[in-house]
User: Which sequence fits this backbone?
């Protein structure tokens, strides 16, 4: 029999003509779902154990099946396993290899199971593992941000709104703003994991099974916290994958913002930070170039992750219950989402600890653009001037400084007094950027002592959850 023959197919019984070679390839998923092999084997071992505990399989059969699956696992790990398109997917490739290896007993593995509940189980096991390692990588990147924030708590930089100089801030405070974005991503992933961690196995093709299975045994063996309540929903639900993909999209949106700031900050014009050479490349034509490739790529990769979210949610749109072959299309977007965020977390995690901070140029930039104008207005308010009036008075001071092409602190005390009689010599201290930073001394503020306190809390939060 040729590879094209349906005799090899587990479902070939009712078919007369062999599958067309192109259609065989078109409908197969083994090219990409072989990546689920480890989780498929874990699921099958648990299923076999459960079937034995409820008396459907003999213990000798169980032992043969499990040994066979373990040998297949070794073959796959060693790269010895031969995957066949004719066997369609990871599930049938492994089952076929099992029968070849242990004979008739292998055919009993699929008792009380369908590929529909099997594949749903595999993806959940795979994604749960991925979330766990993503959380480890993310925490390490976040620790890197806290370390940097602590080191640079008293480093002044201009804070921006509309990308225009707004008020002086601590560079450490800025790093902790990034930390907060990622802290929300982390919380979302931890929460998403709960809905991933539900057992579909036992739902059969859609309606359950006539065998006296015990799903709680399978759940326990596989570490699932809950058992899917409804067999129809269990085989067709991919919400958990969509939800994960939404979490990943949000993470990549944050990464793209962080990356964009790094790209800006490494320009000649900003020169706020220096990326380690390992994270840059040169230009084939311009000898002076050192391009911020890693942040640029991370920024660019956000696109594909957003796209995968749209693919997945569209895949599920209008699907009638229960399983449909459409669902086979969930894997590639999901895998690529995982691969992309794993790599981006790794790249960012490696980049942050080696980030060079150009304190002098950040300070020089903060001195420009009248960043302490608000401090001056606040000072006048302290002297009894209503805020709206104070705002207008300081507006006048800025206009004067622009005319004279100088900074606010270069105006004379007479000029200040002429602008408002409540002005005193103290204005010069108020206009100082370090003073400005220190003055924002409350929970969530940019004062260096507050930044240090926030670093401590951040570390504790990472430890706690
Ligand atoms: N390869 C399939 C998938 O990924 C497995 C389930 C196939 N089920 C079926 N009834 N054809 O969705």
Assistant:
């Amino acid at each position: 029999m040729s590879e094209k023959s349906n005799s090899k197919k587990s479902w070939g019984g009712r078919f007369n003509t062999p599958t067309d070679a192109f259609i065989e390839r078109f409908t197969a998923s083994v090219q990409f779902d072989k990546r689920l092999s480890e989780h498929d084997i874990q699921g099958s071992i648990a299923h076999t154990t459960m079937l034995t505990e409820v008396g459907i399989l003999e213990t000798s059969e169980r032992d043969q099946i499990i040994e066979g699956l373990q040998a297949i696992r070794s073959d796959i790990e060693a790269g010895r396993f031969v995957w066949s398109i004719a066997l369609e997917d990871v599930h049938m490739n492994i089952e076929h290899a099992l029968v070849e290896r242990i004979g008739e007993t292998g055919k009993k593995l699929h008792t009380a199971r369908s590929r529909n509940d099997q594949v749903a189980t595999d993806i959940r096991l795979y994604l749960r593992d991925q979330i766990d390692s993503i959380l480890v990588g993310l925490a390490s990147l976040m620790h890197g941000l806290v370390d940097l924030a602590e080191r640079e708590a008293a480093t002044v930089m201009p804070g921006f709104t509309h990308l225009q100089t707004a008020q002086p801030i601590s560079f450490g405070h800025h790093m902790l703003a990034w930390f907060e974005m990622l802290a929300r991503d982390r919380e979302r992933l931890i929460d998403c994991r709960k809905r991933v961690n539900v057992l579909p196995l036992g739902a059969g093709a859609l309606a359950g099974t006539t065998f006296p299975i015990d799903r709680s045994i399978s759940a326990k063996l596989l570490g699932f916290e809950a058992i899917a309540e409804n067999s129809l929903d269990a085989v067709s639900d991919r919400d958990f994958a969509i939800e994960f993909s939404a979490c990943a999209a949000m993470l990549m949106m944050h990464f793209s913002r962080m990356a964009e700031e790094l790209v800006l900050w490494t320009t000649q014009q900003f020169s706020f930070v220096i990326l380690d050479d390992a994270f840059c490349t040169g230009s084939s034509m311009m000898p002076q170039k050192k391009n911020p490739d890693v942040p640029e790529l991370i920024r660019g990769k956000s696109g594909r992750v957003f796209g995968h979210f749209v693919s997945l949610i569209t895949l599920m749109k209008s699907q009638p219950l229960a399983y449909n072959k459409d669902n086979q299309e969930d894997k590639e977007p999901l895998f690529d989402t995982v691969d992309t965020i794993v790599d981006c977390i790794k790249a960012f995690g490696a980049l942050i600890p080696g980030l060079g901070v150009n304190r002098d140029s950040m300070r020089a930039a903060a001195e420009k653009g009248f960043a302490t104008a608000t401090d001056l207005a606040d000072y006048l308010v302290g002297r009894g001037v209503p805020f709206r009036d104070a705002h207008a008075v300081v507006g006048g001071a800025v206009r004067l400084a622009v005319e004279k092409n100088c900074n606010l602190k270069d105006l004379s005390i007479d000029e200040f007094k002429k602008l408002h009689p409540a002005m005193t010599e103290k204005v010069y201290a108020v206009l100082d950027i370090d003073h400005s930073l220190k003055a924002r001394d409350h929970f969530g503020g940019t004062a260096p002592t507050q930044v240090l306190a926030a670093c401590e809390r951040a570390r504790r939060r990472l430890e706690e959850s």
